Amino acid sequence: MALNGYFGIPGSGKSYSIVEYVIIPALQKGRHVVTNIPLKADLLVQVFGGRITQLELDALEDEELPNKIPHGAVVIIDECWRRWPSGQKISQAPMGDLEFLKEHRHRVDKEGNAMQVVLATQDRSDIAAWVRKLIAHSFEMSKLEEVGLGNKFHIKVYRRCPTGENVPAKYVIREAYGTYKPEIYQYYSSATQSEASDLSVGDEKAMDKRSNLFSSGQALFLMGFIFFAVLGGLYLGYGYVEPKMNGAKHAANSPDMPVVASVTNPPPEAFGQKIVPGKGLVQTTEVTQQSARSGEPSLSGFWRVIGEIRRSDQRRNQGWDSEVGYGVSEAPGDSSRWLPDLVILGSLFGQRLVTMDQCKRFPDGIQLYCDIDGERVTPWSGQQSASKIAPTGRDVLAPATGDGERSDPKPVAGARTSSPTARVTVVEDSSRTPRALLASDVPVARQ
Length: 447
Prior knowledge:
Strand order of the largest sheet: 3-2-4-5-1-6-7-8
Number of strands: 21
Largest sheet: 8 strands, mixed
């Protein structure tokens, strides 16, 4: 077994940890314990069994100490810096010490138990570098009196035996907390120079209480403030979230409502909008379903008029120049070969062409409307007017409410097929008036 090291200032739990986690488990296994920590050997052996050899206080000065330790023993050497102080070179160490520390695991007793060595001192840098290199694991204990936990201590477990205040994280194995138990205290005394008859540990309570963090009135006030601040934050947070949760539940339990989107293209003046003088704005008006007006079709929730294609009347009697002289019978000019005037319908899913004979103009003589598939298509119908269920396999996309002329479309699940009544505010926008494309010289492709 490699060496283990226990480190910590006096009263930090170093000797306590050795007794609880090294000596008592060894005795329970019937091992032979050799140590210079003052133990109540008779009581320990009576309770846990095993065997204990108590070293004298000056045993570390004996050069023959390594040869006096029996094979297979569990050896605990407290204040090991006295024998191997910092700065000692390996060439200065006795050969017996080198063999003891480097080859101790080869010293096996008749039961097959290999020797184990535990070194203890106050600081890792107190012992010689060549000894530190032999330590496999380091246990560093520290008091928690500063936070008012006098009966607990902190333990850090390191790989090897690193030194310094800021130990690299790669050496840290784990951290834990220990508690002083009275039943362990009764088996040892960590005060090796005590003048008490039973070598008991003296009263270590500090005379100056200012080292305790919680003895400060400011610290107590801060703790109370933090406590009530957390309670207040939880109360305010619940007050903010609770109405939203109730609103969500109410919305989930309420029946489906028709989805209404905003109008972007302005309807013609025949619908009764009024221009605000000097501002170019249209006052709010009521746009109702077309079905409510003399039995006309309802506005389409999918298509809207976006333009038209008209033929030029100037060259209707001329044939195609490319066919003249090639024996085409209708080359001299046949208007039946030309496409009729067309109206362009648009939606979020594409465009559609319909013939002009399916459409009419509003009284203003400019805006077109078409009765398609039992619905009325206008420049302000379609997705820019009201939500509608798209053709099979498609979801309706309704524009988000905003001040801009157009908004990014968003899916609306379960929208109504009819166009509900909407209160809209429209803005005069002449740039969106449908424009005619004149096919003056280039004929349109054949049907």
